[in-house]
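Lab intake sheet, docking and co-folding queue.

SAMPLE TYPE: protein with bound small molecule
LIGAND NAME: 1,3-dihydroxyacetonephosphate
LIGAND FORMAT: SMILES
REQUESTED OUTPUT: full 3D complex as structure tokens
PRIORITY: normal
SUBMITTED BY: R.K., bench team

The fields below were copied directly from the construct record.
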Amino acid sequence: MFILVNLKAYPCDPLEVATAAHEVAEESGVRIAVAPQAADVRRVADTGVETWAQHVDPNGYGSHTGSTLAEAVAEAGADGTLINHSEKRLKLADIDGSVQAAARAGLETCVCANNPAQIGAVAALGPDSVAVEPPELIGGDDSVATADPDIVRDAVEAAANVDESVEVFCGAGISSGDDVDAAGDLGATGILLASGVAKADDPRAALEDLVEPL
Ligand SMILES: O=C(CO)COP(=O)(O)O
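RESULT FIELD (auto-filled):
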């Protein structure tokens, strides 16, 4: 199981989370990555933790003021990138362009989507993984794996119908090892989470709890 911690724009210390994630990954053998703000990618990557960007734009080098260039985050140390998060929605053509831009830069890709129908659509664009995250459960206390297990099962089926090589992650409200276990039972091979770690008083303890059953 892959644990991908999205720090969003939360006012946490990205280096504290990154250091804890790196240590817990080393101790547990579980793959854990941290996705900080673009401006923090280099500092986070320097801790040794697997580092992801939260977004890349579809454009390559050129006259694109304000864009997040896939090559730039890769050069800063990112190993992968989220695309089309529920809080950073893109048009299908732009998701396609961002997946291609990330692939050109050597970044692993995870395209987020709200529901199984969208999961099928974005799986067709050839990302490495997709993540189903029902927006109404994001940031809440109810885990998607228990509050809406069918959405995870259906997302796994929707992706497999399009391309069996695309991994399916899930996220929203996940904060404990039991939640991670339940998501795995539904067929997810990764977890995308944010507040359970980024807003925790003790991020390291939160991460240890998440990997405990793995
Ligand atoms: O949006 C998410 C991860 O990208 C999920 O957020 P929460 O873990 O805070 O529900």
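REVIEWER NOTE: The first strand starts at residue 2 and ends at 6.
SIGN-OFF: pending second check by T.M.
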